[in-house]
Amino acid sequence: MKQAMLIDQTKCIGCGACTVSCKAIYARASFGILRTRMKKYETGRFPHVSFRFRKHMCMHCIENAPCIEACPVNAISYVSGDAGGMVIIDDDTCIGCGNCTRQCPYQAPDRDRDRKKAEKCSFCSRRVLAGQTPFCAEACPVGAITFGNRDDVLAEGRRRAEILRAKGRSHAYVWGSADTMVLYLLDQPPEIYELPAEGYTASRQTLLTRLATPAGGVLAAAALGAHGLHLLRERRRRIEDESKLQESHAGRADDG
Amino acid sequence: MKRNGLSRREFLRASAAAAAAGAAGSFVLQGCARQETEIEPYRTDETLGGERFSYCGVCSANCAMIGHVAAGRLVQLRGNPDDQVGRGKLCVKGYSAIKDLYDPDRLKYPMMRTEARKGPGIDPKWVKVSWEEALQTTADGFNDAIESHGPETVAFFSRGHDWMNRLRDAIGTPNHLMHHSTCFTTHTAVWRACLGMGNRPFMLDIARAKYLLSFGWDMPSKAKNMSARDYVAALSDGAKSVVVDPRLTVTGTMADEWIPIKPGTDLAFMLAMIRIIVNEELYDAELVESTTYGLDRLRAQVQDYTPQWASGITGIDAAVITRVAREFATTRPALIPNHKRDAGGPNYSNSWRAAHCMVILNAMVGAIDHPGGQIVPRRPYLKPFNAVFPPPEFPKPRTERIDGFEKHPIVGPTRRGDFSTVTDALLTGKPYPIKAALFRKHNVLAFPDATRFVEALKKIDFIAVCDVWPSEMVQMADVVFPEPYFLETSGFGDRDYHEFYPQIALRQPMVPPLYDTRGYGGIISGIADAMGLGHIFEGVSSSTLWDEQLKAMGTSWQELNNSPNGLWSDEKPFVPTTEFKTPSGKIELYSTVFEEHGYDPLPLWQEKRELPSDQYPFYMLISRPPMHKMSQTQNNELMAQTYLENAVIMNRDRARQLGLEQGRQVYVESRAGRIRLKLQLEEGIRPDCVCIEHGFGHWSPSLSIAHQKGANEGDLIPHLSIEEMVALKDPGAGACMTDFCVSVRSA
């Protein structure tokens, strides 16, 4: 059963309950190195101003996670099972080089310089495989994090987005519908939250642009292999097919 | 660095290439192979260990919690799903409490100072002492003060506590002080006068409200568990929310409308609302007729308060005020939520009048003790300590207190004390000196004009401090008593911050005490024993007390301990209150109690005490971040990782005009003092305001994480003399926590 986590940023109060309940359990990283953290984004000018939070974390790219490709020592991998794309770092193997952080479209892995390790969300993979809920979803005091069957979660997200749009929040949409295990319910354009406009597709382009720099040349050459390009094309096609997922963009277009 | 003839950079690049080349075709397979190498602590419920029940002691909401203990160590805290307050969740502070338990900086044994001088930067030169020595030294300190100067020269700075109250009464001192005058006594005064109840009137049924109008109420920003949850739930259910606040808060940004009002003018906004609602007869006629008193006098009183008038004072369009008034009165259930330091809290000299308006407006729309409104908690009957253990005859204490709190007839009987006047009394020794004091928590950072309070503490001959952490107050102590953290203790607590029906939560120790600590009651009875007052606690024990209290409710300590969910509930249906303990038996819009005691029986417009000047051009706002509890948790390793130090928050445009940029170190100065902080620029704050979040600026070097992080805005808050306080004619004796202005200059 494919699973997903929907983070409703329109409900999130930015308190950090997820951050601390995660760090209380996954405690090996140094002080200040966090698997998930809150960021605040302010838009507009006084007095027409608002702000939103985003729960930063690993998005768990369903396929071809750039961090896996970027890791020089193969420390990052997918967890097997049918939950989806849970990406984990093997702490013993990791050398803390920071490549994964640099190549991640979301800068999700935190580089723990003291331990010389990368640290990121594991999606509580052991818990998920055991049929349990990730700690952060369980902890959220306002119920902003929904975890479960991907189709259900997505349907719930769309339903919420529709309600919000009906209430006049014309930007409300589900972000990341096709490519990541982590989905967001947002009511501001994605760039406000430092998110790529079109989920993984754009992320992939960002990755390729970055890899095309001289320093990343070797990696780029490898990553641009025929197989990689094929996967990329496949994904684009699939996303286009799932145009119903693009309700968000329709919503935003209406709003100008 | 060279490795195998390659530089580190070359090595990484080569490795990356190899990995990437291999990755394209085979990464899924690799995933299978690697899954098993995931290292600890990828815990599942099975590895979290056995369950223990408690309720949170970080704040007074007391959310019921479940702790997982594996191999003798508390591994995780969760909410208890059957608890009315938390409903299965904790807040960020509750989840973090686990790190307070294991904070290596905790007080571990009784200590005495060997350095006579006291203050910041002075090492107390602690020596570890036995409990007997610590208790006897304290008893001697108290007895010396009593014999040489009289019992009133002993003071207690502590929340009310059955054991402590009895020792206080046995000694015969009137001087018992708590923090409430900095926190919510304005609300208390109004509730006592207008409703005849409500020492802590904070229970809100936000989830069922359809129109929420907040005047500075911002508990979602502070992550108060039930408020945040219910606010989000109400909005999801389609409630409309309007937030009146000089700063854009979490509550405000989630709301439908943010109204950035001029600080301290909420009273004018509310007076104009009352006028509209009364004149247009938009109130709930039936309920107002049957349950309130004084509508006609109120109508006559508010006629001058037109929306145009209020607009001139608040800076808000008259049309907005009118629209909000009509929306509030015609959308049911509507509610003005309140909790402590909102616009009705002890922030300004006129805040108690704003609190009075809140009661009036809520009463007019039927929000007092009705679903979707402000609720009187349905507490279980808690048999009083003195009924279980009848006290011996005690001498009547001197009436005159050092802080003048007895001069406030409405809140005086609560004996909560006045934090803003006490500094003067300690420094001047007038009306009389304090020679010995016991502090429980009540850290120095919490007092107005905190630096001056430290000077005042030096005038006290003997100070004993009970605490869990080596706070600044501990640094000022002669004797230090270490207390256990709540996760090491037993007991039970009701749910009075969110109690629709009586409910009790069990507290079991999660782990045995980590250090040589004693509970507060034990410390107090130890001091009493050593003072020669052992008889006052003869036959007194907490186990007897708890059993008697629980039996009076219809359960027992044993039954509660065997409860499968750690709770005892008496699920009675909710019936709104129609009889109030006021002289008229009704909600007194016109308060005969205020009238009797010489306070204005109806709210009148009154300007706040201080306005911006050339010297101090900014209004001061004080807030609190969600992940900290006042000045108590800055040393918590988890909370500190999410919020390590505070800053002074200023409007971006205003800063640009002043040539100040983000991150610049600035001095913030008031007539009381000056602090240095980093500047944080935001759009969501009025250009004439600055805001500082409370809890920082710890100077105790024993707090290894919190030490010297940020600054304490308490240093800016002017203290009050007793005469000034009395002259304010505030029935709640509020400490005017933000009724002053500041300047901001580059450091």
Q: Keyphrases for this structure?
A:
heterodimer; A: 256 residues; alpha+beta; Alpha-Beta Plaits; two-stranded antiparallel ribbon; 10 helices; 10 strands; 36% helix; globular; disordered C terminus; B: 747 residues; alpha/beta; Phosphorylase Kinase, domain 1; Rossmann fold; 5 domains; seven-stranded mixed β-sheet; six-stranded mixed barrel; 24 helices; 27 strands; disordered N terminus
What does this 3D model show about the protein?
The complex is a heterodimer of chains A (256) and B (747). Chain A is of the alpha+beta class. Chain A has one domain (3-255): Alpha-Beta Plaits. Helices cover 36% and strands 19% of the residues of chain A. Chain A is built from ten helices and ten strands. In chain A, 54% of the residues are buried. The model of chain A is unreliable at 200-256 (pLDDT under 50). With 747 residues, chain B is an alpha/beta fold. Chain B folds into five domains: 2-37, no CATH class; 51-123 and 485-517 and 541-572, Phosphorylase Kinase, domain 1 (2-Layer Sandwich), CATH 3.30.200; 130-182 and 377-483, Rossmann fold (3-Layer(aba) Sandwich); 202-375 and 583-596, Dimethylsulfoxide Reductase, domain 2 (3-Layer(aba) Sandwich); 618-746, Barwin-like endoglucanases (Beta Barrel), CATH 2.40.40.20. Chain B is built from 24 helices and 27 strands. A seven-stranded mixed beta sheet of chain B has the order 7-6-17-16-15-8-9, with helices on one face. Chain B has a six-stranded mixed beta barrel with strand order 22-26-23-25-24-27. In chain B, helix 8 (266-279) packs antiparallel against helix 11. Chain B is globular, with a radius of gyration of 27 Å. Residues 1-41 of chain B have low confidence and may be disordered. At the A-B interface, helix 1, strand 2, strand 3, helix 2 and helix 4 of A face helix 1, strand 5, helix 2, helix 6 and helix 7 of B.
